[in-house]
Every structure is written in structure tokens, then in C-alpha cells.
Amino acid sequence: MKTILVTGGLGYIGSHTVVELINSGYEPIIVDNLSNTSIDVLNRIEQISHKKCVFYQIDVCDKVALSSVFEKHIIDSIIHFAAFKAVGESVEQPLKYYQNNIGGLITLLEVMQEKGIKNIVFSSSCTVYGEPDSSPVNELSPIKKASSPYGNTKQIGEEILTDCGFLNCVALRYFNPIGAHSTALIGELPLGVPNNLMPYITQTAIGIREQLTVFGNDYNTPDGTCIRDYIHVVDLANAHVKALKFIETHPDNLFDVFNIGTGEGYTVLDIVNMFEKENNITLKYKIGPKRAGDVEKVWADNSKAKTQLQWQANHTLVDMVKSAWKWQLALQESK
Ligand code: UFG
User: Among 13, 14, 121, 326, who pairs with 243 as Cys (CB 3.0-4.6 Å)?
Assistant: First the structure.
């Protein structure tokens, strides 16, 4: 059984990936500093998978602590999620982002080099494409200047990984993950006021927020609101399993990158309407000003992931909006 170190393994995407790793016969070792999640998630992963998980509360910037994990376990590959991800916060506190996202990556890579481990899957983002000239974007589309320090940490992260010739690395460029596990035991746990669309919608629907503000309706799109490629978090989690298999079967790969999105673009109002219809809810929302730094439209050409990773998205937008609501209801009940 292959052992996979999952940094940030109790976060939103990390927790769903740990479940899919166990389902696929891997042995995950979870490292998380709990800065943006709760230890409860560990119990919930164990409830879903009926398996005890190894967990270390460690910050990936702490080299001594991180090294000790490699001394206790024979690690085959790493999936590196641990990073800050709030775009707005990164503009206010850029150094916090560079320190954690770049510092954490470098520390991890140093430990990997010292221990002779080369396999790594890196969490990247479609944010590296900035405002693309056209969509769908493929992996050869130009990398545009990042619109935030957060986005820049993903671009720099990819560059660092490209330069590290000792690695066998796959970077996955995530589009917009939403939804939750079908058991409603794990999902997105935003601390404070959510930045992202789906948790804002579900919190509004349940009454935690007064109303949703749709950021702008005069974009050059069919209904004037921005277009994104929303992907179910379980499909995204599965892409990591496929990426590991790709690495296993391509031992001489140095660095490769794959878009992980459904290939379909939806507007903000499409998401609101679908959420209302499928969950039989009327959502309070208003149109507000544009949000600084928002891209007008972006969706993925995912053909490279389909052909080379043998990955595909199996969940529909209906699954996404329903599972997100089911998760919000379960969260409310567990309080
Ligand atoms: N939106 C609203 N109201 C809200 C929140 C969002 O109208 O309250 C709109 C945004 O303007 C955007 C769309 O919903 O048009 C999606 O916004 P999100 O904040 O959910 O997602 P983003 O596309 O801005 O960014 C997300 C992550 C980033 C990541 C990026 C690309 O937050 O970390 O996807 O991967 F980099």
C-alpha cells in the first residue's frame, strides 16, 4: 500500500481527497496546522472511510517537525494543499501569503530533497491565466500577471517546481470547487464571512447572512454576471488520485500541469437560479458593484486531463448545488 503525505489534509479539498485516497487503496498521512479547519474533520473522515487516519498537527513551515514525519513513515508521494487562499486578504497582507505559501513549499521541497523523495502533486489554480484572451483555456494559454499576491504565490510555486529537476511533479490547476461529500459529513467550513460564492449562497439561504450581493451585472456575458467553471469537490479530489497514478506510470516526468474543471462555464445568476430551483428555496440577493480583481469569464479546456490522466468530472451542477445545501443543513444541525 502506497503512503501519501497530504499537507492541508483537513481542509476543504484536502479532506475530500483523503477520502478518495482511502477509497483507492492509498494510505494517507495527514499534516495540517488547523489554521483554517477543525480537528473534527479528522473524525468525520474516519466516519466516512471506516478507517483510522494518521494525523500530525504540524505547520509545513516548521522544517524540524515536518522532517520528523518522514522519519516515522516511508512516504511514496506528497499532495501539497497547505496554503492560504483568500484573495482579498492576500492584497492586505502580502507577506503573510508569500511567507506561508512560498515558504511552506520551499521547506517541503528541501525536506523532500534531503529524504530523496521526488513525487509531488501541487495545488495550483486557474488564477494563473488571469483574464484570458478567450475561453476555454488550455494549459498552453498564456500565464498573465497575477491579480493578487495569492495568485502570484501559485504562479511562483509552479515556477519553483519547474526549476527543481529532482522532482516528478504534477500541478493541478483547479477551477472553482463547490459542493460537498454525499454523506454531508465533510464540506467547506469557511471561518467568518465567506469570500466565495457557494458558501455565501448557502449561509444566506439558512439565514446566517442577510442577502447575497452579486458582484456586477454589466460584464460582457449573457446575463451580465461573471462566468466560472464550477467543479464538484469530489471530482476534483479524484483528479489527485489520477495525478498520483500518472506520476507512478511516468517516473521520468519532471513537471506537468493539468486543468481540472468541467469545461462548462456558468454565470453567477445561473448558479443562483439552479440553487433556488433544485433546493426549492428563494434566495435573497441584490446586484452590487463589481468586485476588484474579478476575472470576467474563464472556463477550462480539460481535454489534457481527460486523455492523459484518464480523469473526468462525473458530477453535474445539480449535484453541486444540492450537496452544498445538504452540507449547510447538516452543519446547522450539528451545532
Ligand atoms: N461572487 C458574488 N458574490 C459573492 C461571492 C462571489 O457575486 O458574494 C461572484 C464573484 O464575483 C465571481 C463568482 O461569484 O464572479 C465566483 O467567485 P468566488 O469568490 O467563489 O471564486 P473566484 O472565481 O473569485 O476565485 C476562486 C477562489 C480563488 C481561486 C480562483 C481560481 O476564491 O482562490 O477561484 O481558482 F484562485
Answer: 121
